[in-house]
């Protein structure tokens, strides 16, 4: 893959004023304390992102209590929107939040692919390929808040960054937080993202008025897209090749200028979207994936500590006790590895810079060879509902 460090520019425009889930750090879990001032917990989840909160909600529905540690002072509601297909909605239904979210977001009917000069290369209708398909773009902020509200107010402990962890002789994990607090956990679940301290400890780390359609535009080493999220909001992105991440730019007006320069000769609807976007809603993020090779790469669990989501298998967005832990890894490998390979290959094809290859892609591959079925095959993932319990 020729991409050394691809970069994503993304936004959610016209952000809503819905109240955010800002819980005070003083609202803490009341846990049993041992004589040496170490709090004991059965299950500790590190990271209050989507994976962490979804895991906590799932455990709660099974009647299992957990403590979620989040290093930030409140829920991290920034970041890109998420396009969820039917497999994602099955999971949300299984943990009891699917219908809470459906009512807030448009169902996307299909996808349009265009060249940089505005010529339509291909269009698809999702239900023509699969009548059961369900596609909606969801705001990360609302998804997080919807998950968090399902938990007791004291289930998430904010301002609780993980400083270090170690396994005790009895098999339990000792977690030391940045503020000096110490916790002893029977099970640790790492949901702490791409730079996961839990993954690092485990040795995994070394060292992102329109029709209800997903619209893509492909150029040379550059691509863009946009999709309506709700009746009043549109999400767009620009993805481009870069030899290095370059200096960190946080000034949103500079990011907007950079975005407009990248696509200055592209379809006017994309340029208009950028112009209409409030500066403060634009962000720039490097895209990262991690190749996990079966047998060679470390497993997602060690003892009673396990990784979930980006902490274990981050992918580019191109497609959207101990025995139990080992079973989890065995079950997930056959799904995670092919998806990582597919996401990487699709990204390589879409970001190619060679003019001959781009011409073949735009005039042969996309219009005549690409079919929606194989692209969405990974969404045919069954998820059984979790058991509901009363609290």
Automatic annotation (TrEMBL):
Keywords: Monooxygenase, Oxidoreductase. Coiled coil: none annotated. SUPFAM superfamilies: FAD/NAD(P)-binding domain. Residues 42-205 form the FAD-binding domain. One of its GO terms (molecular function) is FAD binding. It comes from the Eukaryota. PANTHER family: FAD/NAD(P)-BINDING OXIDOREDUCTASE FAMILY PROTEIN, FAD_NAD(P)-BINDING OXIDOREDUCTASE FAMILY PROTEIN. Belongs to the 3-hydroxybenzoate 6-hydroxylase family. This is FAD/NAD(P)-BINDING OXIDOREDUCTASE FAMILY PROTEIN. It comes from Salix koriyanagi. The lineage of its organism: Eukaryota, Viridiplantae, Streptophyta, Embryophyta, Tracheophyta.
